[in-house]
Amino acid sequence: PRIVVLISGSGSNMAAIADAVKQGDIDAEISAVICNRPEAPGLQKAKDRDIETQVIDHKEFASREDFDVALMRCIDDYQPDLVVLAGFMRILTADFVIRYHGRMLNIHPSLLPKYQGLNTHQRALDAGDEQHGVTVHFVTEELDGGPNVIQAVIPVYDGDDAISLQQRVHSQEHVIYPIAVKWFVNGRLTMKGNDALLDGNIL
Ligand code: GRF
């Protein structure tokens, strides 16, 4: 199977997945890493791993629609089986989401359905939550609203701040995202209606 990974920033989740591919843990190929920010540090992480990179700078497009069309063309050049959003910080148009229906995953730093959108760590603190975490989910038209695939839960300690939470969540991301990708490329993970299924069972 072929995977295309979309990033905007540090690319540490992309690197975790790429390393799992290299170790033979995930039986797939990362055909390309596509990034919307030319200065994103994740681009170098991809190059260090001999992965092809493409930059599509959203600032060069007049509209979200134009950007998404260019992005779709670039993705489709690689004919991927799976599109992995790994810190890709752009809201996608409905056409884009529909095109990769059932074959696009995202990672979101909260225990979805809690805290869709931004500032998830601070919001968990402000709410006094005792637990926080991260979710891999299929992407549907609802932002951060697609069916959950896998979550990692971390405790919130006295004295935690948004940065300490973010760091502990981030290290869990690198554990669960490769697992979800592995399930998908092994044909175990599918989306049916608004459910994620593992081996045919609703997650
Ligand atoms: C992560 O916090 C992820 O949950 C969010 O974007 C960040 C990506 O980090 N969606 P990285 O670029 O993979 O290091």
Describe it.
The mean pLDDT is 97. This protein starts with a strand and ends with a strand. The chain has a single domain (2-190), classed as Formyl transferase, N-terminal domain (Rossmann fold, 3-Layer(aba) Sandwich), CATH 3.40.50. It is globular. Helix content is 34%, strand content 25%. It has 203 residues and is α/β, with parallel strands linked by helices. It has helices spanning 12-22, 42-48, 64-77, 94-99, 120-126, 162-185, and strands spanning 2-7, 29-35, 53-55, 82-85, 104-108, 131-138, 148-155, 189-192, 195-198, 201-202. The protein is built from 6 helices and 10 strands, in the order E-H-E-H-E-H-E-H-E-H-E-E-H-E-E-E. Helix 1 (12-22) packs parallel to helix 6 (162-185). Strands 3-2-1-4-5-6-7 form a 7-stranded mixed beta sheet, sandwiched between helices. It binds 5-O-phosphono-beta-D-ribofuranosylamine. 5-O-phosphono-beta-D-ribofuranosylamine is lined by residues 7, 9-13, 42, 86-87, 107-109, 134, 170, 173.
Topology readout:
Blueprint: E1 2-7, H1 12-22, E2 29-35, H2 42-48, E3 53-55, H3 64-77, E4 82-85, H4 94-99, E5 104-108, H5 120-126, E6 131-138, E7 148-155, H6 162-185, E8 189-192, E9 195-198, E10 201-202
Parallel strand pairs: 1-2, 1-4, 2-3, 4-5
Antiparallel strand pairs: 5-6, 6-7, 8-9, 9-10
Helix pairs in contact: 1-6
5-O-phosphono-beta-D-ribofuranosylamine binds at residues 7, 9-13, 42, 86-87, 107-109, 134, 170, 173.
